[in-house]
Specification:
Number of helices: 7
Order of helices and strands: HHHHHHH
Distance between the termini: 11 Å
Largest sheet: none
Number of strands: 0
Strand content: under 5%
Helix content: over 70%
Shape: elongated
Radius of gyration: 21 Å
Length: 174
């Protein structure tokens, strides 16, 4: 293995690991959602902005955070089993992250995972815009959701490019 091949493999593994960790972290945050929203509302001061005497001037993001937090609290009290859907959302993230271990181990053989990930990242955008709109999610929040697809695509695109280069070097060495 040449120095360039070693460098590419190290770079590929580092960026693939970063992507895997991002999936795991993203999934893990879906489980304690109600707790996280309580913390986020408190940390941002959203509740004091919404419930102040001048609440008609409260920023839209603060109104939205308080509304979502209140809905989760109410739903959790009346129908706690619905949170099971978030548990499965987390599970999906964990399983996809597990699949990318194959790309971490042998990127050339498993380049299809980078293609799969890039397609999934691209599909985040229409999915968030269409279904978020249908569910009444504010545009700025849908754009935040879209950013996960854009940000996730960056390491995948780099890994795909480096994998193609690694494959080319391996073929030329034979």
């Amino acid at each position: 293995m040449t120095d360039r091949e070693r460098q590419l493999l190290l770079r590929l593994r580092a960026w693939t690991l970063l992507f895997i960790l991002g999936l795991v972290l993203s999934g893990a945050t879906a489980i304690p959602l109600e707790t996280e929203l309580h913390w986020l509302v408190k940390w941002t001061g959203a509740e004091s902005l919404v419930k102040s005497p001048a609440s008609t001037d409260a920023p839209g993001w603060a109104v939205w955070l308080v509304r979502v937090r209140d809905a989760l609290v109410e739903t959790g009290a009346k129908h706690p089993f619905l949170a099971y859907g978030y548990d499965w959302l987390a599970f999906g993230h964990f399983v996809i992250a597990l699949a990318f271990v194959g790309a971490w181990r042998d990127p050339v053989r498993n380049i299809w995972l980078f293609d799969f990930g890039l397609m999934a990242c691209a599909l985040v955008i229409p999915f968030a815009l269409i279904f978020g709109g249908a569910r009444g999610i504010p545009l700025y929040w849908r754009l935040i959701d879209c950013s996960f697809g854009v940000i996730g695509a960056i390491p995948l695109w780099l890994c795909r490019r480096w994998t193609l280069e690694l494959e080319k070097l391996a073929v030329s060495a034979k």
